[in-house]
Amino acid sequence: MVNSDDFNKRLEIILEYYGLTAASFADQIGVQRSSLSHLLSGRNKPSLDFVLKLIAVFPEVDLYWILLGNGNFPKQEMVVDKSNHTKTLPSPTDTSTVLSNEKTVMTLKQDKKKPALQTVSEEQVEQLILIYADGSFKTLRPKDGLLGLPL
Description:
Elements: H1 4-18, H2 22-29, H3 33-41, H4 48-57, H5 63-68, E1 79-81, E2 86-88, H6 95-112, E3 128-131, E4 137-140
Antiparallel strand pairs: 1-2, 3-4
Helix pairs in contact: 2-3
C-alpha cells in the first residue's frame, strides 16, 4: 500500500528536482491544481490516474520509487536541462543486454507464426442440441448438411 506521507515527500523531491511550483507541476501533468494541493496537504491519496499522468510526463520517475520508495530517482542517469526539460540518455554500455533483448524479440516473432489452434483429433460431431428459452429444442446432425443451420 502507498503511504501518503512518504508519497508526498517523494512528490516534493520531484518538485524540487525540476524547480517547479505545485501549480506549474499540476499544469504540466494535466491535473487540477486543487487536486495536487489536496494531495500535498494529505487530504487526499494519490489516484491511479494521477500516478499514470506523472509517469507519462516524467518518465525518469520510477513507478516503484514514487509509490513504494523502492529504487532510485531519477530512474536512469539522465542529463536533464531544467530550463526546457529536454532529456539526454547516456549511450548504452552493456551491449549484451541489447543483444539478449533482440533475441527475445526474434523468438517472439517466430512464435507468432505458429497457428493458434491445432486440430489433433479426428473426432466427428455426432449431434448438436440447441435448447431455446421457451423450453423447446432442436437436434442437428451432420447428415442434415451443415448441421441444418441456415447460412
